[in-house]
Design brief:
Lyase, Ornithine Decarboxylase, Chain A, domain 1; TIM Barrel; 2 domains; 12 helices
Length: about 425
């Protein structure tokens, strides 16, 4: 299935190409607002959500808020009928604030507090995915105190290796997530004995950025089999939450075929007769966003050419944290450009790990040039920090010819205003 790219070059009469977000020049946004700057495409979000909806029309698609928590991004998906997968009370609040229906919200995560549980119950969300016996017992206690019955799905760890980066694998027996497959039946029996709980489904999630279908197929078969066993034993299993994990095409290699993924999901769900829930995040948001950065200096050494840019690991930590590869393109490009040069694109933070990309062949760069870091819409802004007392990048949403600022970059005064001297220092 072809999904339209929202970030493309438009050629001028003189042969120079300028990259646009839909119909808006990225250079215009960089010059008006400043860099570093995240730019999201409303069309990009819509295209990718609808691609999943087309192949899984009956599924509840719960966008994973942790991939991009900007309320404008969430509102765009809410308007398309999306639900939300949240992993904190803050994400729950954001989802509701952005217009996600409570009955389309799934609360996951291994460390929910009693306050977060109470907030979820008071909001009357669809289900809470429980990942341990102690969490189950605390949820029962909180539900009784709230005069409520908590809708529960047990997150099962199927012991399937997703063959992805070690830091984003979640479905192996050595990972902290979920309940061991063999213990799930015991937990569902325990739910029946606790007055504050009601089983409504079963869940799993084996990791992020999967680029092959085999791990999905193995995990989903296990989950479907367990769901059938539970139903036959008298447990209320109305839905199967297959989690997320669909990878995106960062490097130019073939991406997963969503139609083939849908066949695996539907086959597993058809065996059980349950409602399908999926939790895509990166698949929807990554290609719908880019990070614009400006070259500060070109530094030449005996070993390297460094392009030092104004974005850093505090703005975009994925390359430093995961050795993630992102395509980097000049915002202006001319077919008659000089021969390509191999450069390392690095940030200004005092860490050797502060880099955007290494050994990239690009047209010769100079101070002031603008670069576009692609597929940055997931785990970019949402993982940013104020390290080195740097304010994280601003954020903009584009729709056709329109654009608007959806997050203003803070000033240093605003950052400091959140802190206080101790009373004896004033």
């Amino acid at each position: 299935m072809h999904i339209k790219d929202s970030f493309t070059y438009i050629e001028k009469p003189d042969g120079e190409k300028s990259m646009h977000a839909e119909e808006v020049p990225l250079a215009l946004l960089a010059n008006k607002i400043g860099t570093p700057l995240y730019v999201y495409s409303s069309l990009g979000l819509t295209e990718r959500f609808n691609a999943l909806k087309k192949v899984l029309p009956a599924a509840l698609i719960c966008f994973s808020i942790k991939s991009n928590s900007n309320i404008s991004v969430i509102r765009t998906l809410s308007s398309l009928g999306s639900g939300a997968d949240v992993v904190s009370g803050g994400e729950l609040h954001r989802a509701l604030h952005a217009g996600i229906e409570a009955k389309k919200i799934v609360f996951s995560g291994v460390g929910k507090t009693d306050e977060e549980m109470a907030a979820a119950l008071n909001a009357n969300i669809k289900q809470i995915n429980v990942e341990s016996v102690p969490e189950l017992e605390l949820l029962n206690k909180v539900a009784l105190a709230c005069n409520s019955v908590a809708p529960v799905a047990i997150r099962v760890n199927p012991d399937v290796d997703a063959n992805t980066h070690n830091k984003i694998s979640t479905g192996r027996k050595e990972d902290k997530f979920g309940v061991p497959y063999k213990e799930a039946i015991y937990l569902y029996s325990k739910i029946k004995k606790l007055e504050g709980l009601e089983s409504v489904g079963i869940a799993t999630h084996i990791g992020s950025q999967l680029m092959t279908l085999e791990p999905f197929s193995e995990a989903f078969r296990k989950l479907s089999s367990l769901a059938n066993n539970l139903k036959n034993s008298g447990h209320n299993i109305q839905s199967i939450d297959f989690g997320g994990g669909l990878g995106v095409n960062y490097t130019g290699n073939a991406a997963l075929n969503v139609s083939d993924y849908a066949k695996i999901v539907k086959t597993a769900a058809d065996d059980s007769g349950c409602q399908i829930i999926i939790e895509p995040g990166r698949f929807i948001s990554a290609p719908a966003g880019v990070l614009i950065t400006r070259v500060l200096y070109i530094k030449r050494t005996e070993a390297k050419i460094f392009a030092i840019v104004d974005s850093a690991m505090n703005d975009f930590i994925r390359p430093s944290l995961y050795d993630a590869w992102h395509q980097v393109d000049p915002i202006y490009y001319h077919q008659k450009s000089s021969p390509l040069q191999t450069v390392d694109i690095v940030g200004p933070i005092c860490e050797s790990g502060d880099f955007i990309a290494k050994e990239r062949d690009l047209p010769p760069l100079t101070t002031g040039d603008l670069l576009c870091i692609r597929d940055a819409g997931a785990y970019g802004a949402s993982m940013s920090s104020t390290y080195n007392s740097r304010a994280p990048a601003g954020e903009v949403m584009v729709s056709g010819k329109e654009w608007d600022i959806i997050k203003i970059r803070q000033t240093i005064e605003e950052l400091i205003s959140q802190e206080n001297f101790a009373r004896w220092q004033k």
